[in-house]
Amino acid sequence: MMWFAPRPYLKWAGAAAIVGMSWLIQVMPSPVTLHPFASVDIPEGAELSEDLFEYREIPEGLLPAVAVRGVLVVPLSRGDPLTSAVLDGTETAVPDGWWAVELETPPGLLPGAHVLLVAGGDGLSPTTEPIPGVVIRPMAEGQEPGERALIAIPAEQLARVSAASAYGTLTVAVAPGR
To answer: How large is the greatest C-alpha to C-alpha distance in the chain, in angstroms?
Structure first.
């Protein structure tokens, strides 16, 4: 009477589901971010610029985000990642003739990052130019939408930016390479 014994079909289906889920987890893409790596050997004391670095994809959270600005306190070899530990640690200052305003910004901005502010109005105005800005200090270290940052803007644009921010018609644009 062996042929009347119940077959372990549910066990086989459960094992197949576990194997399928583990395979799916392995092939799912992990979140990545772009990080600057030295494209040439950079000596100690060199002023950093974008042309000295190439951006590579790394897993998100592997290295802390850093802006390509400042002066190196140690030399970097080709292929080394840029980290805040190798920079001199000077703060971003407000340029002469500019004022700093606290604004709602996209997540992940770094000190020294350049942004463009687009101030909307009551109607369409094709002659409205974007306003340049420099991030002085992000107010939060997280990656949450709606975080705030201290942004420097030209003094002659202060009233326009303040009004657009108060009415909710201000957009902070960030370059793709930020």
So the answer is: 95
- Can you give the pLDDT of all 178 residues of the chain as single tens digits? 567 777 788 888 999 999 999 998 888 888 888 999 999 999 887 878 889 999 999 988 888 888 887 778 889 999 999 988 887 665 677 888 899 898 888 877 777 788 899 887 655 555 578 889 988 877 755 445 567 888 999 999 888 888 888 888 888 888 776 5
Distance from C-alpha of 166 to C-alpha of 103, rounded to nearest angstrom: 10
Query: Taken in order 129, 130, 133, 139, is the CA torsion positive or negative?
Result: positive
